[in-house]
Amino acid sequence: MDSVAPTxxxxxxxxxxxxxxxxxxxxxxxxxxxxxxxxxxxxxRMALSYFFQHGLQFGRDVVFTYGPLGFLMGRTYSGLQxxxxxxxxxxxxxxxxxxxxxQGFRLTGYPRLFFFLFFFTIGVxxxxxxxxxxxALAGFELLRTSERESGLRTALLVSLIAFLGLFKxxxxxxxxxxxxxxxxxxxxxxxxxxxLRTAAWYVGIFLLGWVLCRQNPLNxxxxxxxxxxxxxxxxDAMGLPTPPAALWKGLLVLLLVxxxxxxxxxxxxxxxxxxxxxxxLGAYVYLNWKHGFVRADGHMIGFYYCVLMVATxxxxxxxxGVVRRHWSRLLVAAAGVLSxxxxxxxxxxxxxxxxxxxxxxxxTTYHAAAYWHDFRGYYDDALRVDETAYDLSNTxxxxxxxxxxxxxxxxxxxxxxxxxxxxxxxxxGYSAYTPALARMNFDFYASDDAPEYVLMxxxxxxxxxxxxxxxxxxxxxxxxxxYVLSEKGYYLWHRKAGHFDPSSITPRPLSSTEVPVGKSVPxxxxxxxxxxxxxDVQLSLLGRLRSFFYKPPIVNLRIEDSVGxxxxxxMPLPQGRTGFIINPIVEDMISYMRFAGAQPERRVRSxxxxxxxxxxxxxxxxxxxxxxxxPESNAGQEFFRQAQRLRFHMFKTAPASFEAQTDVAEENxxxxxxxxxxxxSEMAFDVPEGATYVTGEFGFMPGAYTKGGNTDGAEFVxxxxxxGVQQVLFSRLMDPVHVLTDRGLxxxxxxxxxxxxxxxxxxxxxxPRHNYSWDWTVWTGxxxx
Length: 785
What we know:
Radius of gyration: 34 Å
Number of strands: 23
Helix content: 40-55%
């Protein structure tokens, strides 16, 4: 039975106090929007607003851990949906306050005080946990009252649970468990009509919300399947080591809650309802344990908040009986107190500064309501500042209204520049955790629906090797797209015209070796090719159990390059199985461009898998490392041509390539920029069709022949190749130490042959004594025309 403590409202003053407290809780539960930002979390939050605004289909067009209303939970302003963000926060605040007050006034004495103290100080501050607590409060109330006839209250609570499932997949999973156990218990007690109504309300409200969000119901199977895939990949790819102090507190709290669940189960006279309640409680605790301790950073507080709700709502939350209540009270009290210490370990200052945090949240909400015009203006000003900082005017001019995707995790740049953003399904690169998710993105890029342009910025997280993230897209990009330009750190690519056959770029198997953990697998003579690697590390039974209840251990990939340098990277197991570019070694954007432009710099020698000794029992004894050949690409050559033109800006025609005794350097002679190419040196130029001559100037830096400079001279030669045979067009020996007219810049104009030629070369040879110590030779103003 639903045992409610008698609480008569006997005076107007009592009503006024309750109303004031209710309003205060609403204000504390309202979260004002976050300012726009280009960083990782803000970008995906702003992207969710864009997806909702433009009607993208979740499960098909968008594969992520959030649903169509996830932008309301992310609440980051992007220039879109500002009023929606605020309206939902107010509605959410009222709903939260109603549920908390209803539960709180079922308690009496100190339990009521602790319950309200928890929610007023910290309980409503973390929205992820707040949604889970709201679902639990509604769900446990429905379980307590399952034997009664369903009414409006029941319909509203079931609708709330279903509605919150539209925000985040974790909400959907917890809501499904509660709906299932409630309907199951109603069937157990023989109330088929109530069970049918519960199921119908849940499914009906979720479907109605899905359709009202402009989502196609036919996408729901894909949404469930793909969201589950993301959730499974998350624990492999996003786990962080848990600090020892945080781990023992978390485990002890978990064990106390499990012990309480067993005491509850065996002390209730209604065994059917007890089993249903424990299943729901188990799902609630398990989901929040995994959410908090897979990525063991600030996320941990969500687990502790959810436990504190159970602890402070005892004994009314689950309607504990009087049998063994003292044991239950002791267990939940200990779990609650330890949770407070756990919160401080996870985020120091949260508990100690709880009153200050409460005051700040209250004041922020009050300020937003009282100074609405200034409040809204702050967000618009912040948006304009970011739009200016990330203004890509050259990119917009090239792209126009064509479709654009953003590789990496800074999708906000597309929104700031008002581009026609057309994302791949797993739109955050680091989130393509598994082979299936990576293949979705590959299929998108290989299809006719692929974006016409791609903005790229390569970066990874958590010590991952850079080509682990979105590896399939990094592979297809250089085969289907050509580099266009770079602007403010973003690299623009354009899709090639014509039909694309994805089978033509399938990695070709070369070798596959099974070795013990820690043993290197050499690439051997395969390093002359672009290479793809797959690393398959299998979990043992113990490892699978650990992954289910906690998270898998960290695995590292050791890469040794051709000169013996070693680097260790964290390797999420499914990303290793997916495969990744390994040769040449790509660690940043420049090395990726070298891969794309067939100008490799660092090559792989061998790969090995490293696992900490204490974690070896969680894995099989051997790993399989396979190498595959990738097709060559020259899609990035334009990048190097542009870089060359920028470096040789004092030339009207930039060289295609160059070699020099020392690094080239820009200097000045008589106020004119020149490029120093220390002899012996050579530049090669592509000859435009119809070109008839080459002009420019050459000479020595003054220091080569003055103030102790003692060059023995140098020979400046211009030649071309005709059918592989060299043809000298110009040659002049310069000796500025002894010949005064050889000092300073010397102009030249050399005619080119009438017949087609290969490349044109400008070479500097050392002087007659072959002493090039002082041969500081320069060129400027080169033009092939």
